[in-house]
Every structure is written in structure tokens, then in C-alpha cells.
Amino acid sequence: MNPDDPRFLLRVAAAWPLPGLGLLALPEGPTPYLAACGLHTALAVVVRLPDGTCQPGFATVEEVSRPDDDVPTRGLLLDVAGLRELPRGTTIGLAGPGPMPA
Fold this sequence. Notes:
CATH architecture: Beta Barrel
Strand order of the largest sheet: 1-2-5-4-3-6
Strand content: over 45%
Radius of gyration: 13 Å
Number of helices: 1
CATH topology: Elongation Factor Tu (Ef-tu), domain 3
């Protein structure tokens, strides 16, 4: 998915499993759409793995603060059936009609 696509949310830089909660995905770069959302906003999403496989799921907008960063990072807490890890470069977009573009 291209960052110019209106459904684009983020490209994964890092992700961690949070037992009992899901996968926390943090972005490679700015996330203007997520910045405009309230914390814990629920979104229907499509996860596109680097091999092109797409999986639908749900996510909530979350915020992570780090000691070395002045501004918290917005990311997504994902609930996608069967997904246990997110490789770097995975893209996440809003679910919508039609296939998710490459």
C-alpha cells in the first residue's frame, strides 16, 4: 500500500506481541491519520504483509512514550486472527471496498 493511498495508516518499523491484548505496531514515519484520531479509537483494518498476503482485522489507536523522544509515537494495537508477528515493512490500512493496493 502506498502512503499516498487515503486508506494508508502506517508501515511497520517494529512490532511486539502484548499477551492477552494483541500486536503493538509502531510506524516507520509520521502517521497523520492516527495523530488526528482520539486514543483508543477502534478501526477496521487490513494488514498487508511484505509477501503480499492481506488479512483483515481490527485495531485501536495507541500512544507510546519513550525517554529519548519529546513527542509520543502513535501506533496500532492489532487484533488479527492468527497473526502472531508483523515483519518490518508490513503496511496497515483502513478496510474498505475493493482490494488493498500494493
